[in-house]
Write a structure and sequence with these properties.
Elements (H helix, E strand, L loop, with lengths): L1 E9 L14 E15 L5 E15 L2 E15 L3 E16 L7 E12 L1 H5 L2
Length: 122
């Protein structure tokens, strides 16, 4: 079980710029992550990582909250591993008033890796 927190403040109002730059941007947040690992054989493991984070942001005249929920499932052996990751993000801008949860995303990812010399020696 892992608890995390973060805080940041950026301001560049005194610098003239022709592109976007931070204007009194305040962000704070925290999260909880649970990691489990199960031995499935002599050199095989099944790992799972569940994550929940929440935060607050203020950017100039706008502000809101953000949330993220994710799960990473991984199977690992000496010669190869594979993973499946699913996560969702919600962001709600409160000022100026807008629709609740006006931004969201859902992400699926899968992949793997293999150690070629180990596979050739099988």
């Amino acid at each position: 079980l892992d608890l995390k927190g973060n805080f940041s403040y950026e301001d560049s109002t005194s610098i003239s710029s022709s592109y976007w730059s931070p204007d009194r941007v305040l962000a704070a947040g925290g999260g909880v992550e649970l990691f489990t690992s199960f031995k499935m054989g002599k050199e095989s493991f099944l790992k799972n990582r569940v994550r929940f984070t929440a935060g607050y942001y203020k950017d100039g005249e706008s502000s809101g909250a953000s949330f993220e929920i994710g799960n990473l499932l991984e199977f690992e052996r000496k010669e190869f591993s594979g993973y499946f990751h699913i996560s969702t993000t919600f962001k709600n801008q409160e000022i100026p008033v807008s629709d609740p949860l006006n931004y969201w995303s859902l992400t699926f990812a899968f992949g793997g890796r293999a150690n070629l010399p180990d596979l050739l020696s099988l």
